[in-house]
Please model this.
Amino acid sequence: MASARVHIVGAGLSGLSAAVQLARSGIPVSLHESAGQGGGRCRSFFDAKLDRRIDNGNHLMLSGNWAIREYLAVTGAKDALTGPEDAAFPFRDLKTGETWQVRPDRGRVPWSVLFGPGRVPGTGLGEYLRGLRLARADDDATIADCLSGPGKLYERFWEPLAVGVLNTPAETASAKLLWPVMAETFGRGRAACHPLMAREGLSEAFVDPALAYIKEQGATIAFNDRLRGLGLHGGRVQSLDFASGAVELGERDRVILAVSAWVAADLLPGLAVPTEAHAIVNAHYRLPSAPPADAPPLVGLVGGTSQWVFLRGDVASVTVSAADALAEESNEVVAERLWPEVRAALGLAPDMALPPWRIVKEKRATIAQTPAANRLRPDAATAWENLVLAGDWTATGLPATIEGSIRSGRTAAGRIARAFTSA
Ligand SMILES: Cc1cc2nc3c(=O)[nH]c(=O)nc-3n(C[C@H](O)[C@H](O)[C@H](O)COP(=O)(O)OP(=O)(O)OC[C@H]3O[C@@H](n4cnc5c(N)ncnc54)[C@H](O)[C@@H]3O)c2cc1C
Model:
């Protein structure tokens, strides 16, 4: 008789995280993915126009993201992230040309903000103290409810941070979701605030090493294998209907559904999920020559359309989150509009012509992270005894991010592992 196995549907980061945890515990895993590659919304590809490998979108992480660090350590990819030496976030105001740095203090108490030198230009102490309201934010509070008010800190720090982390306009984004991020990073001091990004690419960091690791542990992996339906009967999943054929489940077999919220709702009758989404637009430019040696690898921008510019080698990539309107513009318009902002951010010659570019629009990049959507995020456990959910949209208590996805995979794997050992 075949040994009991866990079928994981979806090889995005939540599915991969669950697979890594289970494989690590010696539990047999089969991973099924509808696309021809893993990574889902977090992946790299070769772009022939730029003649470079690029990511579907810039992904920023922080050194305080402990689940990311642990995942990379297990898969042998702990050196796959990189970032500036210093835990500092350079910003530029595109309207005024002013520049500044947000640089957390070494310890938990932000002395440099309390006494002045660490403050963003044009801001006062009271504006920082407003940030403490996040800790007490109720379920209905938005970022704007909590943090907007007189002064420049909102526009120069809170709003870009919140839109970047929550991919939702600050007027509708859930304040409650930003607090755990602040507590686990800025609240812990500089060591937890180093900005991190993929050294070579997202797939090279998060996907390829994880697939190699689980394969080594004996997992089977099937790409181009879409789950078309679930055979639900007697309170459990009895069979999985894949594009490649049906799989009948044994008594002890289990399933982790690690697909997007929208796919999960289609597959599972009666599952309520957050359905509203926001777009993220990324513009990648291959610079005609090496960027200036002092060009920062990461810059936050206010006062324009671009929000963050990342530099990897000679490719400058711009992120615009909560970009539903921009995503409706033609790629040419987006490339032309963002290029002057990139030039300013990196200190390039003001007459440098538009270089080769690639626009990537992820129209459903994440769920809208509003108070209403937050209430709809389901727990990992389902009404079906052998079925568990994973995904950045489940009730992780965190925003829909890599850290949230990886933790959701851990949670799902933990539930299954307990059932395996107690059976
Ligand atoms: C452009 C962009 C920028 C981002 N920036 C950041 C950032 O800066 N920092 C950060 O932390 N996070 C960022 N994120 C969010 C992060 O990428 C996601 O939270 C994470 O990748 C979600 O992983 P997941 O596994 O939950 O979902 P997904 O990646 O959606 O994975 C689901 C997988 O299931 C597969 N699938 C779907 N249907 C089926 C089916 N029927 N059968 C089999 N397989 C199926 C899909 O193909 C996919 O591979 C960004 C996202 C985008 C799109």
User: Anything to note?
Assistant: The mean pLDDT is 94. The pocket of flavin-adenine dinucleotide is lined by residues 9-15, 32-35, 40-42, 56-57, 59-61, 226-227, 258-260, 263, 280, 282, 362, 365-366, 391-392, 400-403, 405 (CB under 6 Å).
